[in-house]
Amino acid sequence: MRMRIKKHGAERLQACDNLLLDRPAAPISSSREVIGEDLPLWLEIGCGKGDFACGMAERNPDVCFVALERISNVMVNAVEKAAARAENRPDRLRFAIADAASLSEWFAPHSLDRIFLNFSDPWPKKGHTKRRLTYRAFLETYFSLLKPGGKLAFKTDNAGLFDFTLEELAALGKTPDAVTRDLHNSPYNAGNVETEYEKNFSQKGFPIHYLTVTV
Ligand SMILES: C[S@@+](CC[C@H](N)C(=O)[O-])C[C@H]1O[C@@H](n2cnc3c(N)ncnc32)[C@H](O)[C@@H]1O
């Protein structure tokens, strides 16, 4: 499906410039470089239209939350949503237009407390395995960016991608500390913030798969 270019997309992003991070000259090593305060630094990769990022910022006001998305056209929705919220109450949510492949240029080793991957594109064809955001090379990067004790959380509707992710983790010698194939009917659902895809898939009756791994 071709995405329609958003009217005035560049201007709309420009209007929310205060929430957008510039590509850093050197990788970010702490939240102080993002918001001027030392707080836990959390990252969402592939934030889409920003429901999860906004919901997490709301529930976790003492965290610096960075939401990364590679498609600027999609990011317009996310930053406008966040800007509307921040009008009433400035928060510690920021956005980066970037590809996950460039993460090491954005964040220094052991700089992140948590990483969230939500409904990552499944890339079902075998020839596209390396594009999956839970392919082992991506996982290795995430683990190198997380602090000791830091956590990666992953949720998806896609059983194939979930199985693949468990296999990739096992290949790296990592054991998840939480695994469920029905998040919404599990104890891990307490405090869960739903994404746009999650709302859509769960309304259609698809169970949500979820795991976490601690470094
Ligand atoms: C299926 S959508 C899910 C959106 C949102 N996380 C949700 O759950 O509603 C996947 C999102 O990840 C983004 N994405 C895919 N690959 C990416 C990459 N390599 N780097 C950054 N974002 C990526 C896509 O542009 C898209 O917005």
Mind explaining what this structure looks like?
The protein has eight helices and seven strands. By secondary structure, the chain is an alpha/beta fold. The protein has one domain: Vaccinia Virus protein VP39 (Rossmann fold, 3-Layer(aba) Sandwich). A seven-stranded mixed β-sheet has the order 3-2-1-4-5-7-6, sandwiched between helices. The longest helix has 17 residues. The chain is globular, with a radius of gyration of 17 Å. The N and C termini lie far apart (37 Å). The relative contact order is 0.15. The mean pLDDT is 95. The site of S-adenosylmethionine has 20 residues, from β2 and α8. S-adenosylmethionine binds next to β2 and α8.
